[in-house]
């Protein structure tokens, strides 16, 4: 596998555009494209090496990604190698993080961190909200040794959820129409953990990890409750949770901390400049700009014209290598392909580039569930490109991601927008 991106794009120009920004959000147009991962890796390495960025935060579950964080920082009993750590990822779509591209980045981070003091080691964290049961399990397993009283509070919450297995939709439907919710139990968990979290000393980030798992569980319950209703509420709960987690991580890392974020374009591209705005939807890119200021945040979108991708034809279906057909005529990707220049980096500070794309155009978005034969009827998001992003990387032809061949485990599909992003 060639893990290095093609050399046509001059990343020096992107690094110049980033300047002294504290937040760099790197997108992707699918969760299964090799080049999106390798280009983001190359950009992230340069941000760490040249601009002192502190951590990478991704569209992944907190408990899973925290295991990567412990491994790259060399914590005791964190795993023998990245492959062993990533083989523990079992939530569908497993290929998003259990892939060889992330193995390579993880090993690079571990090697880079070896010479750094603990307070300066580069972290790797998950921002997402889905891991209600995994977060409860992680807390109870840790607290049984560190804080038995708090462990009993977590166990009561687990017992409350027990009748629903690990199915968020089943819990949400039952509590909407028949049963009392488990929210009070989760609030008690968070309150109990916050009382004593600073005394937890299993590793240097134990208090952060324990409190974050409690917050994930509480917000996941809210998310699953909102799933059964129509409208934007569940999407907004999810993206607000991710933005607040990012803020929590920056504050944890202290004054001057800088954050790199990896998420789908639909999360990092400012929602105000897409049709999401008309549905009253917000996202991480919008919220980050609003809180920290546009000069302190750089949003980098990605897209490609054609190629291959890893996806499934239904939720929980086996992963497949699928053909990504040529982009729809008139779309962002088709216009850039027709330039005949191959891969391109667009910096929207350039007035000519900004003027060319200063109108709503279709911009392809592929999710974990994908039907190539139907994509022209739904996989394009109307986008004002120069406002949605600060920069855009176009890759003319792309290859599929390289999964570790983990068999997905069963979970209900969460409500996402669009197309299983």
UniProtKB/TrEMBL annotation:
SUPFAM superfamilies attached to this UniProt entry: EreA/ChaN-like
Protein name listed in UniProt: Erythromycin esterase family protein
Transmembrane parts of this sequence: none
Taxonomic source organism: Rhodocytophaga aerolata
InterPro entries (UniProt xref): Emycin_Estase, Hydrolase/PRTase-associated, UCP036794_erythomycin
């Amino acid at each position: 596998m060639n893990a290095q991106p093609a050399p046509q794009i001059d990343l020096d120009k992107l690094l110049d555009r980033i300047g002294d920004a504290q937040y760099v959000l790197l997108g992707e147009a699918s969760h299964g494209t090799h080049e999106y991962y390798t280009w983001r890796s190359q950009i992230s390495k340069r941000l760490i090496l040249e601009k002192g960025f502190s951590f990478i935060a991704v569209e992944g579950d907190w408990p899973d990604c925290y295991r990567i964080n412990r491994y790259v920082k060399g914590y005791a009993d964190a795993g023998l190698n990245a492959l062993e750590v990533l083989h523990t990822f079992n939530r569908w779509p497993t290929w998003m993080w259990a892939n060889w591209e992330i193995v390579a980045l993880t090993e690079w981070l571990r090697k880079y961190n070896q010479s750094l003091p603990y307070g300066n080691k580069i972290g790797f964290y998950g921002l997402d909200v889905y891991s209600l049961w995994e977060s409860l399990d992680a807390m109870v397993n840790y607290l049984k040794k560190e804080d038995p009283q708090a462990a009993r509070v977590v166990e009561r919450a687990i017992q409350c959820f027990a009748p629903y297995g690990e199915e968020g939709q089943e819990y949400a439907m039952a509590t909407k129409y028949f049963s009392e919710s488990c929210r009070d139990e989760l609030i008690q968990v968070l309150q109990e953990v916050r009382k004593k979290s600073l005394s937890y000393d299993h590793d240097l980030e134990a208090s952060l990890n324990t409190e974050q798992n409690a917050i994930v569980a509480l917000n996941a319950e809210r998310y699953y409750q909102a799933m059964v209703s129509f409208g934007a509420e569940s999407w907004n709960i999810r993206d607000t949770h991710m933005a607040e987690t990012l803020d929590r991580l920056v504050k944890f890392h202290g004054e001057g901390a800088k954050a790199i974020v990896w998420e789908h374009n639909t999360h990092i591209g400012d929602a105000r400049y897409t049709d999401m705005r008309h549905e009253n939807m917000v996202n991480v890119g919008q919220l980050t700009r609003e809180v920290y200021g546009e000069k302190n945040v750089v949003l980098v979108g990605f897209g490609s014209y054609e190629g291959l991708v890893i996806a499934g034809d239904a939720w929980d279906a086996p992963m497949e290598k699928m053909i990504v057909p040529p982009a729809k005529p008139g779309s962002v990707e088709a216009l850039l392909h027709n330039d005949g220049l191959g891969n391109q980096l667009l910096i929207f500070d350039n007035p000519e580039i900004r003027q060319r794309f200063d109108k709503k155009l279709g911009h392809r978005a592929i999710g974990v569930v994908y039907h190539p034969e139907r994509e022209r009827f739904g996989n394009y998001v109307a986008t004002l490109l120069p406002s949605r992003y600060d920069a855009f990387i176009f890759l003319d032809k792309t290859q599929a991601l390289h999964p570790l061949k983990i068999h997905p485990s069963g979970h209900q599909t969460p409500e996402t927008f669009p197309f299983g992003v």
